[in-house]
Amino acid sequence: MTWLIFGMLCIALSGVPGLLYDRRSDAGERPAAVLVVVGCLACLAGIGGALLHGGAELQLAWAVPAGRFALRVDALAAAFLLPLLLVVATGAVYGLGYWPQRAHPDNGRKLRLNYGLISAAMILLLCARNGVLFLVAWEVMALAGFFLITAEDRRAEVRRAGYIYLIATHTGTLALFGLFALLGHATGSALWPAAGTLPAAGSTALFLLGLFGFGMKAGLMPLHIWLPGAHAAAPSHASALLSGVMIKTGIYGLVRLTSLFAVIPPWWGWTLLLTGAVSGILGVALALAQHDIKRLLAYHSVENIGIIAMGLGLALLGRSFGQPQLVLLGLAGCLLHVANHGLFKSLLFLSAGSVIHATGSRDLDHFGGLLKLQRWTGLFFLGGAVAISGLPPFNGFISEWLIYLGAFHAVGHPGRGLYLALLAAPALALIGGLALACFVKVFGVTFLGAPRTPEAQQAHEAPASMLAPMALLLAACAWIGLLPGSVAPLLAAAAGNWNGSALPPLTARLAPLSRVGLAGWVLLLLLAGLGLWLRRRRAGVGATGETWGCGYRFPTPRMQYTASSFADTLVGLFRFGLWSERHGAEVAGLFPGAASFASHTPDVVLDRALTPAATGLARLFRWLRRTVQHGVTAIYLLYVAAALVVLLTLFTR
Amino acid sequence: MVARLVLQLVVLLLFAPLLAGVIAKTKALFAGRVGPPLLQPWYDLARLWGKGFVVSRTTTWVFFAGPVVGLAVPLLAALFIPFGGLPAPVSFEGDLILFVYLFGLARFFTAIAALDTGSSFEGMGAVREVTFSCLAEPTLFFALLVLARGASGLSLGALLGPQLAGQWQSETGASLGLILVCLFVVLLVENSRIPFDDPNTHLELTMIHEVMVLDHSGPAFGMVLYGAALKLMVLGALLVRIALPFQTGSLLLDLLIFLGGELALAVLIGVVESVMARLRLPRVPQVLVGTTLLSVFALVLVLR
């Protein structure tokens, strides 16, 4: 525990040395990165020690009423903490090359200070066992997150994204205040009760408040409104942190909250399963329609949070219907996907950052042919793309496989309604297919083909300080994909923590993880063999030429498929939920002049529902104010008199 | 186990190109032509192997990753599926998901290899491939759920076990018939056959799979063709096993039944290709969604 607190302090204070220097001096950069890395290593040592001893606990008296200062690390918290540490450390090192102080004198110091603060707050939050302490850490995290998003607050779109984030996060926090007040009322203390002890009475309100508050942070559809804008606006390594780990604190809250109850009503599981499926399908459909690379990745977070929620929903159903195997598969899939999404999404954001750094644009249609100029970035992005599409042999496949197994497991239990949970399998299949289509589009349009702009033609490879963090993240993705058996004990222990009582271990009969890993190795071996064979066969023979243009002799890079044209068919199929806007592209006559075309897909909830509703409400209140308040003193006196008369008639007897 | 593994791979590697020959022969007979010899796919592979390469200057190593993954995936996936009465060489809980996702990996790399050339025609092919496949994928999972309902485990070996013969005679028979139709449609989509794609058309604008591999040449193109043939046979094994769930106990007889089933499937594909025209592209998603609904009916029937 000492190591953990020492590490937390190192990370929290990492940005402070930089404040002592001039804004143009880069003397604070390296100390900050070193402090973060040292802090992460110290936390890792602390968590490792805690896991070896079956959990560590710290309780101190403090001046805040109701309860003590309580920290506890168990396997469930560790499942969230371990990927967090890796993402925080790699992001800090990446920031050295991506956001140097000399290039960003205005906001470099602010960014590093808040990067440290948000990371430490998240570690504290994941260990906190006291409601008040949890809320304090939650608020520090939310506010530091706001400053990360608004790092470039000179740009209007960034300010707007930050503003929406602030509204959303505080609406969520309001629900959490209610949740912890009710929880404290039920247990008589701000300390959290042990898993599986809360009675069923009053649990509905707790669950709904938690679902709203935590779901807002996690970005479950339709509460995801803040997410796309915020992740697009923040600097890439901050986006990696926000998308990779910060939204997972919402999932952690849901997982921890549901673990407290002794009895779980079935509708909780159904609600999460359904919300998860909707988030997954609509999230990936919205992602397909985007052509801003960071906005697209942000919508994939909504999709992956949906998959995670489906896993949690299956585990809850397992609890309700007394199926320990379903609990184990669902929760193991949920927790592993939390870690996996943290790893591959940070990898994708970091490599997207490297592309943005090299070309100065976020629009997919300004890239093209970058694999030739950014060999390593392209390779790392490809690894992340395969992983996020849930394809073997990377880690995304393992967690989705566990959730699939859970869904198939439900087939064997007819009656009592549980078998409906098997619909999770086709939903996951659709999500997987769409994600694959989306990442074929992103990788193809960004890295393959010919460069579409002069900037893309002159792109340069990122420095080693940016490439090494990506390599480390890709290695972690491959490790979980190829040696999945090594994470099984942690997952089973975490599922036991959640269930309150020990579950049967994740046996080879239930989920043969080592066999899947072995299949991955065989696949790699086959690929390497065939690849080398083809390479040897190719050596020395062959000619190069232009791409075959089907008879047309003068193709230009502008004739390539663009991001919008690639997604057009699928976006058309989902038009009932997307309502894409298209402008232009009408040509008339035999020799038409120049024409332009633009397509744009605004967010369904934010831009189509909430913003018009809020604008309407604001107009209504402006009208009310105009009619009620017009500065005539006599009328104000009349209001006072009328109020008095009403109150007197109501309250005199 | 090793002997069975080797047998399965040898049967697959030797027999798969013959299916393409049978399809071509059937179509020729329907059209009143003599048609190419049955072993023509083998001759094509041999000819391509002797050729050199012509590679576009736009491409990178990703261009060659497409054929490599496309050939490796059916080889690995074939280990999980029983060839008729021959049990699967490798079988474990959940291998059916690995089976489906391996083909997803092949699709991913084939599509990005097509985009690597920078040609808009190949872009079109890539779009169609990923679009239609992601609509076919839920159908495949509904069909697997129907099979899983009556099976004792969650491996392909258990799903396609000897219990199928009994199921045909029970109430489940209707569901099996429905998913057989659905899986046939999925097979046609995944292998880019008429009515979804016409591999023999002369117009690149209307193709799916063929247009994606337009720029490949020589041995790499040979790998593409061989990979496609293996894929047809491996996916066909799923259908053949459901349609002919006989288990004689004799290795040779089981193998002959299976190979006969695969040949019958190839003839059936040839007949379908001869009597139908290619669908208009906007109609394809409608057919696929309709097939998904059919598989939902099959699932409802077994769950009731």
Structural summary, described in words:
The complex is a heterodimer of chains A (653) and B (304). Chain A has helices at residues 2-12, 16-19, 29-52, 75-98, 108-127, 131-149, 156-187, 203-218, 227-233, 236-246, 248-259, 266-288, 293-320, 324-359, 370-373, 375-388, 395-409, 424-447, 454-457, 464-482, 488-499, 513-538, 563-573, 575-578, 606-628, 633-651, and strands at residues 56-60, 69-73, 543-545, 581-584, 597-600. Chain A has 653 residues and is mainly alpha-helical. Chain A has 26 helices and five strands. Chain A is 68% helix and 3% strand. Chain A has a domain at 606-651. In chain A, strand 1 (56-60) and strand 2 (69-73) form a beta hairpin. In chain A, the strands form two sheets. In chain A, strands 1-2 form a two-stranded antiparallel sheet. Chain A has a two-stranded antiparallel ribbon with strand order 4-5. In chain A, helix 4 packs antiparallel against helix 20 and helix 8 packs antiparallel against helix 11. Chain B has 304 residues and is mainly alpha-helical. Chain B has one domain (2-303). Chain B is built from twelve helices and one strand. In chain B, helix 3 (62-77) runs antiparallel to helix 4. The N and C termini of chain B lie far apart (39 Å). Strand 3 of chain A pairs parallel with strand 1 (54-56) of chain B.
